[in-house]
C-alpha cells in the first residue's frame, strides 16, 4: 500500500484509481471475516430485513422490515465483550392503520431556520405542516417496506416506499413521518438525486417526486402507448462532472430497460437492445439495475432470464452497446419479480449480485468473472427436505475510507432468521 501511495503522490495514479486499489485491498480482507449478527427488531418470530441504506457520512444505517417497521443504527456506538458494536438508536413499529387522512395534510418543505439547539442529524430543509393543519402524527407503513433511501445532500431526511402504496418522507431527528404521498400502486424501489426522488412501482410509468413542490405528478412516458408493464427498478446515473446528462434508467416486468434524459423535458432517450438481434434487454422481467459509481455511462442490469449484463451508453449520442455478461446464465438465481429491491450493487471495480440461492456473488466489472461469494452463514434448524432455501433480502456497503470506520458490508436476511449481518475489516 505504501508503494501505491507513492505512485499517487508522484501523479502516476489518479484519485479514482487510488480509491479502487484501496477498496480492493479492504474488500479482500472481508473474504475471511465472520459476520456480527444483529436483530432488526425484537419479536417473538423473525421479521425479514427488506432494505438497508447507509447515509452520506457512512456513520448511520437504516433498516426496514416486512412488518412495516424501521430502525436507525449508529455505527460503533455500543459495546459488547469489550468491542465496539452498532447501536439501534431509533425504532418505529409498523402500523395497521393510518392515523390521519393523507389528503387532509399538506406539507411544506422550507429552509431550516438557524438558532436553537443543533440537531444530531443535519439537514438544509425541514418538512412540516402549516400551523393550521397540525394534527395527529402520520403513522408508519401498514405493510412491508420495500425500499429505504437517505436524502442525498444530508442525513436530516430519509424516504421509504411500501406495499401499502405510500411513499413517506421522514424527519430523522424526530424519527417521525413528515409527509405521505399515495402512489396508488405498490412501490418496488426508490432512488434519490438532489431534490428529486424516483419511484418505481406497479404503475407502467416511472414517477418523479420534486421535493421543492412535493408533487408526484411527474410521470415519464405518458404519451407512449407501448408502456404497459409495471416498473421494478429506477436509478439515477452518477455524474462525475456537471457536463454529463442527468439520466434515469428503468427496468420493467417485460424485460425492457429504458433510459430517460431529465434535462430534456424528461424525454425518452433510448431502449437498451442487443445490436445483433435488436431484442429487448432481458427475455423476462428486469428487476434491478445499477450505474457505474465512477460516473461513466455504463450500467448493469439483471432479470428473470438469469443474466447480468453490462451496457455502455457512450457519450455523444452513440447507440448503446452490450459490453459483456457477468458470470454464467443461471435461471434459478433470479426467479422472482419482486423478491427484493437489492438485487444489484456496484462499488469500485466490483458488482454485487443478490442470488436466489442465498448468497451474494461478487463479479469483477472489468472482466465479468466471479471474484467471491458471500454465502448465507446462519444455520437452519429444520431438516433440509422440509425447508426452503434461506435468502439474503437486502445489502448495503459503507466505503467512505476517511471516516475511520473502515469498509462495512451489511446484509439483511429473510424471515428464516430476520437478522442483520455485518462484515467488517
UniProtKB/TrEMBL annotation:
Pfam families: WD40. SUPFAM superfamilies: WD40 repeat-like. One of its GO terms (cellular component) is Cul4A-RING E3 ubiquitin ligase complex. GO terms for biological process: proteasome-mediated ubiquitin-dependent protein catabolic process; protein polyubiquitination; transcription-coupled nucleotide-excision repair. PROSITE patterns: WD_REPEATS_1, WD_REPEATS_2, WD_REPEATS_REGION. WD repeats lie at residues 50-83, 138-180, 247-263. The keyword Acetylation does not apply. The keyword ATP-binding does not apply. Keywords: DNA damage, DNA repair, Repeat, WD repeat. Residues 96-139 are annotated as: Disordered. This is KLTH0C07634p. It comes from Lachancea thermotolerans (strain ATCC 56472 / CBS 6340 / NRRL Y-8284) (Yeast). The lineage of its organism: Eukaryota, Fungi, Dikarya, Ascomycota, Saccharomycotina.
Amino acid at each position: 500500500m505504501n508503494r501505491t501511495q507513492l505512485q499517487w503522490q508522484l501523479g502516476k495514479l489518479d484519485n479514482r484509481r487510488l480509491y479502487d486499489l484501496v477498496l480492493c485491498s479492504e474488500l479482500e480482507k472481508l473474504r475471511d471475516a465472520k459476520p456480527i449478527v444483529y436483530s432488526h427488531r425484537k419479536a417473538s418470530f423473525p421479521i425479514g430485513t427488506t432494505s438497508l441504506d447507509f447515509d452520506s457520512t457512512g456513520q448511520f444505517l437504516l433498516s426496514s422490515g416486512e412488518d412495516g417497521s424501521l430502525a436507525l443504527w449508529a455505527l460503533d456506538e455500543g459495546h459488547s465483550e469489550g468491542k465496539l458494536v452498532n447501536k439501534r438508536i431509533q425504532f418505529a413499529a409498523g402500523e395497521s392503520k393510518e392515523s390521519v387522512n393523507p389528503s387532509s395534510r399538506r406539507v411544506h418543505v422550507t429552509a431550516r431556520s438557524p438558532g436553537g439547539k443543533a440537531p444530531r442529524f443535519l439537514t438544509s430543509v425541514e418538512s412540516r405542516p402549516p400551523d393550521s393543519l397540525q394534527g395527529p402524527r402520520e403513522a408508519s407503513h401498514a405493510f412491508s417496506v420495500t425500499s429505504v433511501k437517505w436524502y442525498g445532500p444530508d442525513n436530516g431526511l430519509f424516504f421509504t416506499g411500501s406495499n401499502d402504496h405510500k411513499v413517506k418522507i421522514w424527519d430523522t431527528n424526530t424519527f417521525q413521518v413528515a409527509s405521505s404521498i399515495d402512489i396508488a400502486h405498490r412501490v418496488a424501489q426508490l432512488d434519490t438525486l438532489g431534490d428529486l426522488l424516483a419511484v418505481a412501482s406497479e404503475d407502467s410509468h416511472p414517477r418523479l417526486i420534486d421535493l421543492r413542490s412535493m408533487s408526484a405528478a411527474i410521470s415519464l412516458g405518458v404519451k407512449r402507448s407501448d408502456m404497459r408493464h409495471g416498473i421494478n427498478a429506477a436509478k439515477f446515473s452518477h455524474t462525475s462532472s456537471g457536463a454529463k446528462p442527468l439520466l434515469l434508467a428503468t427496468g420493467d416486468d417485460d424485460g425492457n430497460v429504458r433510459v430517460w434524459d431529465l434535462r430534456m423535458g424528461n424525454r425518452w432517450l433510448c431502449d437498451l437492445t442487443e445490436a445483433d438481434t435488436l431484442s429487448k434487454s432481458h427475455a423476462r422481467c428486469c428487476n434491478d439495475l445499477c450505474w457505474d459509481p465512477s460516473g461513466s455511462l455504463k450500467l448493469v442490469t439483471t432479470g428473470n432470464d438469469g443474466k447480468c449484463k453490462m451496457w455502455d451508453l457512450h457519450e455523444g449520442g452513440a447507440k448503446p452497446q452490450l459490453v459483456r455478461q457477468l458470470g454464467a446464465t443461471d435461471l434459478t438465481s433470479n426467479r422472482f419479480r419482486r423478491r427484493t429491491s437489492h438485487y444489484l450493487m456496484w462499488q469500485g471495480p466490483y458488482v454485487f449480485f443478490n442470488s436466489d440461492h442465498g448468497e451474494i456473488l461478487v463479479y469483477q466489472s472489468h472482466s465479468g468473472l466471479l471474484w467471491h461469494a458471500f454465502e448465507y452463514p446462519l444455520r437452519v434448524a429444520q431438516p433440509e427436505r422440509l425447508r426452503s432455501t434461506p435468502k439474503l433480502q437486502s445489502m448495503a456497503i459503507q466505503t467512505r475510507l476517511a471516516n475511520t470506520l473502515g469498509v462495512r458490508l451489511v446484509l439483511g436476511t429473510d424471515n428464516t432468521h430476520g437478522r442483520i449481518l455485518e462484515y467488517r475489516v
